[in-house]
Amino acid sequence: MIRIGIIGCGGIANAHVLAYLQHSERVKIQALADVYVDAAEGLRRRFKLEAQVHHSYEELLKREDVDAVDIMLPHHLHWKAVMDAIMAGKHVLVEKPMCVTPAEADAVVDAVKAAKTKLLVGHNQVFSPAVREAKRMIEEGYVGKLFSVRTQDCFKGRIGGWRLSKEKIGGGELIDTGYHPMYLLSYLSASKVSSVYAVTGKFFNLEMEGEDTAMVLVNFADGSLGSVNTSWAYELPPGDKRFAVAGEKGLLYGDLLVLGYKVPGMGEARREWPTVRDPYTDTFIYEISHFLDVVEGRSEPIQGPEEGRSVVRLVTAAYRSVAEKRAVGLDEV
């Protein structure tokens, strides 16, 4: 039985706790930590958890009866909490982003290499059945040589709290919801990113210090292209896809639980997966299952510190592109 400590008991913690409860035969939530004790107490009551509440995560990390921690703090606090957890000998699942700067990411990679613990970055959409199947089909040549990868994640919603602060969020929408299509782009592509050109805007959440909308164009080292569309100011048109991959043999496109495949001149092949709870929560159920496999030594992290660093560099290059109004190479960040 793996004993988990939850660090940060805000909104996203609800999805994580629901996922842990789906694997109750393998894991127990042992402790909760939040500077706002009422948030931790509320989480404990809501899910009837037999877990001790701590006012600080430092107290939680001292516990010998905690094997691993799940870090869900505001972005600017991720790096220190991750480093402290590694130094305390705990396995780590950290919500995206792993941290907010390439220098922080380098330090995390080095710390994990030196430690005996494992780290998984919470790129939850990678664990959806449709994305995993698309990755398999790409690797097995179903679309042939890749021409382009397009990813997107958009909704219209009011943003508040720490996300209004450019310093605390690490920028704006792009390093929050926009982080999802950024890591999906990296995951589905067959090549390393060579350069990035990005533009941002603020249309609906005018009180934010950062952007609420971003578009990113990517050149990959093998000559293929990528694009990201992400926003808190508008929804996607009905039927639009979360991801689409075009290659010399055909197309792959879909969402979390639906995947389409089309070869030129032929009809569409389509596959759908059943839900456990709902498409959103299911990504966390699959992610937590993988994290438990990692902690138990059954698997290496699919999205570990190296993958986390790659996406941090990609986002950093995008922000630099916006600031300097030019394409920025990944070797510049």
TrEMBL record:
It holds the Pfam family GFO_IDH_MocA_C3. The keyword tRNA processing does not apply. Keywords: Oxidoreductase. Residues 131-252 form the GFO/IDH/MocA-like oxidoreductase domain. Gene3D superfamilies: Dihydrodipicolinate Reductase, domain 2 (3.30.360.10), NAD(P)-binding Rossmann-like Domain (3.40.50.720). GO terms for molecular function: nucleotide binding; oxidoreductase activity. Residues 2-123 form the Gfo/Idh/MocA-like oxidoreductase N-terminal domain. This is Dehydrogenase.
